[in-house]
Structure to design on (651 residues):
């Protein structure tokens, strides 16, 4: 971890980046540098306001808020950066200015000090061209607001040391960001989408007003292009960025002239739409989709970024409701072909897909898949939902297991979650409301979700779950189905279903009892009271096979476990199992008695079942029954409404 970082440029994004860094690494010494003392003062004030707000909203206690302000220093003196580990430049988007800054920086720091620029458009090859030591320099491009927006583009600059790029990727990932690695081209990956989306929106102004275009765009984004341009004071940025692209790649990228003469756009608030005549709406919609897919295909055809990153980045950083490749899939090849043909006639020169459209769909949307020493490491990556499992993610995991399982070079698999907070926060609760009140559909849903788990039961190659944070509900059921669990020391396990008024349906009431029968009393408490089980306690009980102190050694330990288990993964007990009796539920249990009763009955019956399959079936049906209770309706509605459930009236 770095101990001293200097952020140069105390405008808007510099202090926001500093605030993220200081929140993520509280002991950090942070130096904010600007040429103007007034800018430094404003930055420090903003810093203090953020900390006060976080404290007022209960996100930080008083000690944490105070720690955030300790070790933050603002200055106009470049000499203050001597001895830092990392200089992060976030000054105005001006090549000559940035080069002057880096000359001053390099005169004051060692040859190993990391240097990164927060440019959104200027390639690293250009801004660092005069540096003496280029291997330690690259672009780290944040998105507004940088303290909260998780995405950071990390640019694989030609002269940059690949280990340094990997380090940055690791650093951002373990400090709560979502780093996306891109090639070193003008505007990198996501701004190619954003800038051209805005530029083509401006080209549509002859057909519709800015407010109308934003209304049409609202089908695809939370805020329309003109609204965002107003917020970000973005007109000069588009002019600058698209001029760069025009010089590098052709006149078709030239920015619309209107950006030079308009200060701000007339448009409506987010969520408010205006009427648009049908023909104009159709033309604008086609143009917006056309430019989105043109840029997406170009990014993938030229290897500027990866498909899953593009899809995720557009949603997380740019506010798209769906990734561009998901839109392509959902609208279908005929419609995509029609839109692109129209786009080609209206915007000659702009890139078009170079491959058959189906080729752009060949990627895992919610997983990262790596091969390490003969072991396939599968990372669940849905950072926006704490890696919660939905049907598509379940299917993707299953596909990866099927694809790599038969390969003789593959010894087994590791399953881990992205980031440091969650292995997996359970099944995606978004799907639950539709099942309420339908026992048969709910039980079938549980059976369908279990296809992946049943496949794991039959695998002859080992799969080890590596818990990098919380493992909840369906996520814990998945981990427990693996042949072993290793965990970060700070991670924890929980079946929160009873807090939602439901029973956990995909194995929790049968599998742990057959895998670790001596710990049955622990599982009773987890199921009935949603008690959290810390990884250290689970380790003492033998549920977790090994503990790790950090993320790197967690992955390493998981791989070692796969290698040790190779050829002999342990199958689950098939016959009945003896379990501890249930104590009477203590008074004051805030949960539904009816659902606790369903759980207890299912656990007893599953323990007596003569086969694992029969035990699992008991669980699916119990889940179905629980979905028909008043408690389920209350619990799941409360989660959706972000309030605590009240089970006092539900029985
Ligand atoms: N399904 C779908 N989305 C989920 C999810 C799940 N199981 N668990 C978390 N998320 C989403 C949240 O809705 C939120 O999305 P939003 O930012 O769009 O509102 C995001 O992940 C972050 O979670 P949040 O609740 O804001 O974080 P937190 O730190 O306040 O709380 C938890 C974390 C895990 C305690 C809380 O998210 C939770 O209780 N999740 C449900 C866990 C559960 O019951 N799982 C079992 C289901 S079978």
């Amino acid at each position: 971890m770095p101990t001293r970082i200097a952020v140069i440029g105390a405008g808007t994004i510099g202090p926001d980046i500093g605030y993220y860094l200081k929140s993520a690494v509280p002991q950090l010494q942070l130096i904010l540098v600007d040429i103007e003392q007034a800018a430094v003062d404003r930055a420090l004030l903003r810093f203090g306001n953020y900390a006060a707000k976080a404290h007022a909203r209960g996100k930080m206690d008083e000690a944490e808020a105070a720690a955030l302000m300790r070790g933050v220093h603002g200055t106009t003196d470049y000499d203050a950066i001597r001895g830092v580990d990392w200089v992060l430049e976030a000054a105005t988007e001006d090549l000559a200015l940035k080069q002057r800054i880096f000359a001053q920086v390099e005169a004051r720091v060692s040859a190993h000090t990391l240097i990164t620029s927060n440019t959104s458009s200027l390639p690293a090859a250009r801004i660092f061209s005069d540096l003496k030591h280029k291997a330690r320099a690259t672009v780290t491009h944040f998105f507004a607001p940088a303290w909260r927006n998780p995405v950071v583009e990390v640019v694989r600059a030609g002269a940059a040391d690949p280990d340094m790029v990997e380090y940055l990727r690791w650093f951002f990932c373990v400090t709560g960001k979502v780093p996306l690695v891109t090639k070193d081209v003008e505007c990198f990956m996501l701004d190619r989408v954003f800038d051209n989306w805005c530029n083509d929106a401006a080209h549509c102004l002859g057909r519709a007003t800015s407010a109308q275009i934003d209304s049409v765009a609202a089908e695809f984004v939370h805020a329309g292009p003109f609204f965002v341009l107003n917020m970000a004071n973005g007109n000069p940025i588009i002019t600058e960025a698209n001029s760069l692209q025009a010089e590098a790649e052709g006149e078709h990228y030239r920015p619309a002239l209107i950006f030079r003469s308009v200060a701000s756009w007339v448009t409506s608030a987010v969520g408010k739409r205006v009427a648009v005549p049908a023909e104009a709406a159709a033309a604008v919609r086609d143009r917006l989709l056309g430019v989105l897919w043109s840029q997406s295909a170009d990014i993938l055809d030229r290897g500027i970024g990866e498909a899953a990153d593009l899809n995720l980045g557009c949603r997380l950083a740019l506010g798209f409701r769906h990734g561009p490749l998901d839109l392509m899939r959902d609208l279908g090849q005929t419609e995509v072909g029609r839109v692109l043909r129209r786009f080609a006639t209206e915007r000659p020169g702009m890139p078009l897909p170079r491959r058959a459209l189906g080729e752009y769909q060949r990627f895992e949307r919610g997983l990262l898949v790596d091969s390490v020493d003969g072991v396939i490491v599968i990372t669940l990556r849905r950072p926006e939902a704490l890696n919660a499992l939905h049907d598509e993610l379940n299917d993707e995991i299953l596909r990866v297991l099927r694809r790599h399982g038969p390969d003789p070079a593959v010894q087994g698999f590791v399953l881990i979650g992205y980031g440091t907070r969650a292995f997996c926060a359970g099944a995606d609760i978004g799907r639950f409301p539709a099942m309420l009140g339908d026992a048969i559909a709910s039980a079938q849903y549980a059976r369908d979700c279990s296809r992946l788990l049943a496949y794991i039961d039959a695998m002859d190659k080992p799969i080890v779950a590596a818990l990098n944070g919380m493992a909840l509900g369906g996520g814990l059921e998945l981990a427990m189905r693996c042949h072993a669990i290793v965990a970060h020391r700070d991670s924890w396990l929980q079946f929160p279903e009873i807090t939602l008024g439901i029973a956990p349906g995909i194995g929790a009431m049968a599998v742990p009892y057959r895998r670790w029968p001596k710990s049955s009393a622990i599982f009773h408490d987890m199921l009935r009271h949603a008690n959290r089980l810390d990884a250290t306690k689970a380790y003492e009980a033998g549920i977790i096979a090994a503990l790790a102190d950090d993320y790197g050694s967690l992955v390493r330990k998981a791989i070692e476990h796969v290698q040790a288990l190779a050829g002999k993964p342990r199958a689950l007990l098939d016959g009945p199992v003896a379990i501890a009796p249930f104590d009477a539920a203590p008074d004051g249990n805030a949960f539904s008695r009816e659902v606790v009763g369903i759980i207890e009955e299912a656990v007893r019956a599953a323990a007596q079942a003569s086969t694992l399959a029969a035990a699992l079936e008991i669980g699916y049906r119990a889940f179905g029954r629980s979905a028909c209770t008043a408690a389920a309706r209350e619990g799941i509605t409360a989660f959706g409404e972000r309030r605590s459930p009240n089970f006092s009236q539900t029985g």
Notes: The chain has a mean pLDDT of 95. The radius of gyration is 27 Å. The pocket of coenzyme A is lined by residues 385-386, 388, 425-430, 472-474, 496-497, 500 (CB under 6 Å). Residues 118 and 141 are 5 Å apart (CA to CA).
